[in-house]
Amino acid sequence: MSEKKPSLWIRIYSFFVYGFIYAPILILIIFSFNTQKLNIHWEGFTLHWYNVLFADKQIFLATRNTLMIALISTIVATIIGTLAALAMHRYRFPLYNASETVMYIPIVIPEVVMGISLLVFFVMIKTTLGLTTITLSHIAFNIPFVALVVRARLHGYDKAIDEAAMDLGANEFTTFRRITLPTIMPGVLSGAMLALTLSLDDYVITYFTAGPGSTTLPLRVFSMVKTAVTPEINALSTLWVMIIFILLVIGQIAQRRRV
Amino acid sequence: MKRFRIVSLIVITLSLIISACGGTVATTVAPPEPTTATGAPTAAPAEPTTPPAVSDTLNLYAWSEYVPQQMLDDFTTKYGIKVNYDTYSSNEEMLAKLQAGASGYDVIIPSDYTVAIMIKQDMLEQIDVTKLSNFGNLDPRFTNRDYDPGNKYTIPYQWGTSGMIYDKTTVPSEPKSWSDLWDPAYKGRLVLLDDEREVMGMALRVLGFDPNTTNEDELNQAEQKLIELKPNILKFDSDAPETAIISGEAFAGMVYNGNASLALAEDPNVVYICPTEGCSIWFDNLAVPKGAPHKDAAMLFLDWVLDKNESVLITVEFPYSNPNKAALEYLKTYDPTVYETYMSFSGTNPDDAFLAKTSPIVDVGDATTIYDNLWTDFLSR
């Protein structure tokens, strides 16, 4: 198959699409180096706001909370989601279709609904809101995303390979460790990356389930913007965009890798 | 059998993971860390004796960029109480969270009208101000207000006004009253707060009505009046309305005093007034929500905020008005430049003539629906 070059029109069109998506982010990054506090127009170059940012204790605490929640919820959700996907792939059981649908409902349900229901639930069972409740909530909304990605990877996975391994004397665990897991690893990794990015920038569900001492970065930024958008927020967003961008690239690489 | 084994394996693994995870999360929250939160112990302690406190944590729930970090660090240094500073972005957000049953917060900073609602719903702990050794530092003009007579539940933290801002070099002629803004010379040159009560209140004042009226007929007239103003309105902005004034896009508008202070710092031609019809005044207050787990620490903190050495930090850092008379007096020597700016600007230190024209926006109860409907209708025209 010969590869055709896109026509001029498609190229111009693509340029505008990408510009529409990335121009605001680019401007945000540029203005993080602005000397003017109110950030209305460009006055001069400075790294001052990055110093302010790194000296901001509340931002530091919020970052620590965010990263801790994201890491724990990603690991747990990835394990549960992967196991769920494997079970759905391997077995047929009563209410199979129903349980599959129910599994993916959190993806389509509005975040507000999920947030309120979690808040009401946690208050009802008399849990103190805080890092634990946020982490549990993030695990809850991340599981279906991981399961979805891993199931896509499992699609067309030949069970005969597993059976062959067992015929040759491997027990179930060895088969899983040596055969199944390496095969679906790209799916598991990109599921984990997706979970991590979702957890890092979640606002709505986190807002409802947050308690004393558990303010995350998105919550912090949202309340900072209320008083005035200083270049400190631009600087913070710039770093954030970079981190998410790097994570997404890693996720892409993981997905492309073929075992 | 095989299936059962796998299922039980999964269940066991999951429960192990969850309990392990719960454990790590819980332990990171639980231990008191008086040693880690050292901060810079710069401010001198006010009292020679340190009252004993049982609690080792204080959970503060307030706006972001509203409580100086230095003040919190000093508090930790002095009492060994770690402060968790969590943030919300509106009174409604905080209220909704507490009403849903979220607990654990010890000190909150609600605005006057929210205080009134919270007292009515029995959501605040009573405070005995006689136990606060620094309560006398407050300017008596700003205590004992209508939303909390006798300061039984709250003490004022910061206050301010929503008045008129204009740039004297761009306006056609210097406005004195809100009604001057209806002049066609302001076409597309006004910035207003995105706040239905403030903007409707302005129209009600222009018409000579009570800005907190619940009379539907008066409210309808106010909406009609606002519709006449529409061609002059450039935009509604509550977060950073001062930017439109500084950039010259807008000539005049309605802003909070904090915005006016920020504008003045960038543009010396900015003027902030309370127009002849009057303008509104607001108070943010320290309060202790019902069921606060660390009430003893909360009381220590309230007294700490009222300490002039600490209160002065608020005014140095944030552009609002400080009800603490002793702190303002101390500011004179602590930072003469800030003191000079604070005292000379009507946004931070309005004179008595300005203050005489102010009145608070109060909760209108069921009439809120009428306001909501008229406001939505006005915006859609």
Can you give the mean pLDDT of chain B?
Answer: 86
What is the fourth-level CATH superfamily of chain A?
A: MetI-like
CATH fold-type name of the largest domain in chain B: D-Maltodextrin-Binding Protein, domain 2
User: What characterizes the major β-sheet of chain A?
Assistant: none
CATH topology of chain A, by name, is: MetI-like fold
- Count the E strands of chain A: 0
Q: How many beta-strand runs of chain B?
A: 10
Rounded to the nearest angstrom, the radius of gyration of chain A is 22 Å
What count of domains describes the coordinates of chain A? 1
Shape of chain A: globular
Quote the distance from N terminus to C terminus of chain A: 25 Å
Low-confidence region ranges of chain A: none
Return the CATH architecture of the largest domain in chain B: 3-Layer(aba) Sandwich
Uncertain spans of chain B = 1-49
Class based on secondary structure composition and strand pairing of chain B: alpha/beta
Portion of residues within helices of chain B: 40-55%
Descriptors:
heterodimer; A: 259 residues; MetI-like fold; 76% helix; globular; B: 381 residues; alpha/beta; D-Maltodextrin-Binding Protein, domain 2; 2 domains; seven-stranded mixed beta sheet; three-stranded parallel beta sheet
Describe the protein in words:
The complex is a heterodimer of chains A (259) and B (381). Chain A has 259 residues and is mainly alpha-helical. Chain A has one domain (49-256): MetI-like (MetI-like fold), CATH 1.10.3720. Chain A is built from 11 helices and no strands. Chain A has helices at residues 8-31, 48-55, 57-90, 96-108, 111-124, 131-154, 159-167, 172-200, 204-209, 217-227, 231-256. In chain A, helix 1 (8-31) packs across helix 11, helix 3 packs antiparallel against helix 8 and helix 6 (131-154) crosses helix 8 (172-200). Chain A is globular. The two termini of chain A are 25 Å apart. The relative contact order of chain A is 0.15. The model of chain A has no long low-confidence stretch (mean pLDDT 89). By secondary structure, chain B is α/β, with parallel strands linked by helices. Chain B folds into 2 domains: 57-159 and 283-343, D-Maltodextrin-Binding Protein, domain 2, CATH 3.40.190.10; 161-281 and 345-380, Periplasmic binding protein-like II (D-Maltodextrin-Binding Protein, domain 2), CATH 3.40.190.10. Chain B has 14 helices and 10 strands. In chain B, strands 4, 5, 6, 7, 8, 9 and 10 form a 7-stranded mixed beta sheet that branches. In chain B, strands 2-1-3 form a 3-stranded parallel beta sheet. In chain B, strand 1 (57-63), helix 2 (69-79) and strand 2 form a beta-alpha-beta unit. The model of chain B is unreliable at 1-49 (pLDDT under 50). At the A-B interface, helix 3, helix 5, helix 6 and helix 10 of A face helix 1, strand 1, strand 2, helix 7 and helix 8 of B.
